[in-house]
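Exercise: predict the fold of this chain.
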Amino acid sequence: MPFNFLDGLDALVDLLTLDFSKNSSSKSAVTKKSSKKSKYSTELWGGSFLAMASILYFIVFKNSLPEENYVQTVLICILIGFLISFVLFFSLYQLGLFYFKSLFKFIFFNGSVILLVISFVLFMYYKSGVFF
């Protein structure tokens, strides 16, 4: 596709006419373009977290786990995972990055992060060999 010099000229004019006021119409057009690009970003992050968590769960539960204090160990790992994820959610909330437009996005993202953190804690506990 050849470069159209009028498109380059249009971009240059837009660059020269930057308006830093709050009621700028060009800023709202840029915001609309960026919101269309990131429409499914929450689902993308949640899906990738679920994929990573499923891989970690497969690695952990591929072999049989030790029989000694099995239930207690899994419950402790789940509790540690919940605590780490809630600290992460609180940090995101304090930074202003914890905003969702629908309840489905909220539940999907939070559930996938919690599952990822729990799987990571289980993986670190059972596969690192430090705790045995």
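Check your answer against the key: The chain has a mean pLDDT of 79.
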